[in-house]
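Box 3.1 A note on notation
Throughout this textbook, protein chains are presented in two layers. The first layer is the amino acid sequence; the second is a token string describing backbone geometry. Keep the layers aligned when reading.
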Amino acid sequence: MQDKLYEIYTDDSGAFTVGSIAVRNKDDIVFKGVDEEGKVSAYYAMPLRTVREMIPDTPYLRKIGKYMQYAELHPYDGWFSLPEMDLDPEGPVLTQVLRNAMSREALVTVCRIGEEELLCGYVREIEKGRVLLDCVDPESAENLTQVKLRIRDLEYIEYGSIANELLKFANRN
């Protein structure tokens, strides 16, 4: 059976993400996102300070839980499933997620705090609290320039999503 689901709010817009906690420490949280069809769809890693509220047991979550039950009986993991990821809650969680992505040559999507623009790319280097991304244009799947970001400036990291897997495929083929 699935882990406890939450509506996770990061701003005052009323929009939320559904997910279950994968790991949490005093600074960061990683949760497994669940899409509107009840499929586990991505890992989302973020500083805990960006999470405004986590609400369990709502009518919407009860519906999604039923969708997840249906998904267990009708799996689609023959062509997509989240990669396994071991995270140490005692360590810097965001950095661990980025290292996982780097070691698997996975494409990630990141958002900087206070920015609307999302950056997609491959993690090439992590050093002194910074990450170097080889960026990819999400519209054309073409390579863009490299960008170096401070990890502490990241609002969130999306890792392992089908959208990222498809963009990676389009970029490499």
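The chain has a mean pLDDT of 93. The first strand starts at residue 6 and ends at 9.
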